Fold this protein.
Amino acid sequence: MVIAEDNALLREGLVLLLTSAGHEVTGVAATGPEILPLLLEHRPDAAVLDVRLPPGFRDEGLRAALAARAELPGLPVLVLSQYVEETYAAELLGGGATGVGYLLKDRVGRVDEFLDALERVAAGGTALDPEVVTELLARRRDDPLRSLTPREREVLELMAQGYDNGTIARSLVVTERAVHKHIGNVFAKLGLPPADGGHRRVRAVLAYLNA
């Protein structure tokens, strides 16, 4: 893993958390310009990057993530942000939703959730903070999104967060068969072809949300 975070306390906390969970942290960065060379040198299994870093505290981490994925296609990147910033989330997801994550920093404090999200991203999946998903869905008030039932919308939100059918079923306290049916309805209403692969269906949903 490579970590980029300017807050020394949080940076060291992430290093300790990841190493305690059995991951190897091969490099750390505190500024935007340090990130790309570090990623190209270590070619990590995944990178955890803060969105806003010195020197400008604007979008240095995001720019580095996009540049790194251009140089290392498919590099799993989990981006951390203090607030929900739709533009950043949409830009990161715009190049395809494989191996990308966008979490609010508060989520790091929920250790199990954070590590689960990181593992999904490292495996080529997607991990979006529920608040980010809500913001992205809220942007799309036009049809056919409004044609979804409340339950189908719940399923779509959980799909967009990267969860599989079993996890969605447990979260909503329904059967997996019911989840499969809802997913079929969601794809049909959004004009998207059904896909059995977990990552393919998430990419399809996110591609629609960011169209």
User: Anything to note?
Assistant: The radius of gyration is 17 Å.
